[in-house]
Specification:
By secondary structure, the chain is mostly beta strands. It contains 2 helices and 22 strands. The protein folds into 2 domains: 180 residues, no CATH class; 82 residues, Sandwich (Immunoglobulin-like). The longest helix is centred in the first third of the chain and has 16 residues. The radius of gyration is 23 Å and the shape is elongated.
Length: 292
């Protein structure tokens, strides 16, 4: 009995002391919180790739995605078709812009093109349903391109193709992740209307690690937490930019910070939790601040 009680308190203490660390290890498809980065594309954006006939190739249709809001495009949807002399192919894929740091969840190898053919095996992106778990248990790619759908035809007849996405408004989530020096961020991209050279992008999100501030103590300090009326943000480098969000995700302050001590007055703010987002170049630091 004593061993059971001891184990129970160890597990309970982990969740009390390290909620952000536990949260950062997974993400649910279609879900997000006010501290996460979330983009609702309204109206939805439909990508239609060209079906080029010989001659000079047309540019592919590309839709860039900055999954975590750091102003750097991490992934892009790619759509392109080509035909000539009675044969052709089409491709609708998701690609990572930085192969080593940006990864896409793997679904399966397409079996239409066999290894002994003139084609290599086609890697298909994994299609997730709403509330499916996105974490390190998924199979993650080491390459830069995964297919949502493709077709190949010859002499005006269908030859081969694959489609890993059902055209449903609920079952089309692509799982992605970013490797950072001190954390791994998980995200999802919701698409629908996946058909040959067409895909519609609806929304995407990426989780944030609230303990990230502690990993940059040499750059930034925020205190006291919790606070009553004032917060001091101490920076060792210039050019930090601060955005504060309330618990409903609404922006309440947007300003540049100077090197040294920056005093932020919160006396007019209602009591509750606020998200402090600090940006510098391509780095983002997220911290939860409680006003009492």
């Amino acid at each position: 009995m004593k061993n059971f009680v001891f184990t129970f308190w160890i597990v309970l203490s982990y969740f009390i002391v390290c909620p952000s660390e536990a949260f950062s290890q997974y993400f649910l498809a279609g879900q997000h919180s006010v501290s996460d980065y979330y983009v609702n594309i309204d109206p939805d954006s439909t990508v239609i790739g060209p079906n080029n006939h010989g001659g000079n190739p047309l540019p592919a249709a590309i839709y860039q995605i900055d999954i975590n809001g750091d102003s750097v495009n991490d992934f892009h949807l790619y759509s392109y078709g080509f035909w000539m002399n009675g044969g052709g192919d089409s491709e609708l894929s998701i690609r990572s812009n930085e192969i080593n740091n940006c990864q896409i969840a793997f679904g399966y190898y397409d079996t239409c093109h066999q290894p002994n053919s003139n084609y290599s095996l086609f890697s298909m992106a994994k299609s997730l349903k709403k509330n499916d778990t996105i974490n390190d248990k998924l199979d993650w790619n080491q390459g830069g391109r995964f297919f949502l759908t493709y077709t190949d035809w010859i002499w005006m007849a269908y030859n081969c193709g694959g489609n890993s996405f059902v055209n449903s408004t609920e079952d089309n989530y692509i799982a992605v992740r970013l490797f950072q020096p001190n954390d791994t961020l998980y995200g999802w991209i919701k698409v629908t209307n996946v058909n040959a050279l067409i895909v519609t992008v609806q929304e995407f999100a990426c989780n944030k690690k609230n303990t990230g501030i502690d990993e940059h103590n040499d750059l930034v300090r925020i205190y006291p937490i919790p606070t009553n009326n004032y917060i001091t943000i101490e920076t060792q480098m210039p050019d930090f930019h601060l955005i504060i969000y309330n618990q409903y995700g609404m922006e309440t302050l947007n300003k540049n910070l100077v090197k040294g001590n920056n005093l932020i007055e919160l006396s007019s703010y209602a009591n509750g939790a606020y998200i402090f987002k600090l940006l510098r170049n391509n780095s983002i630091i997220i911290k939860k601040v409680i006003k009492q």
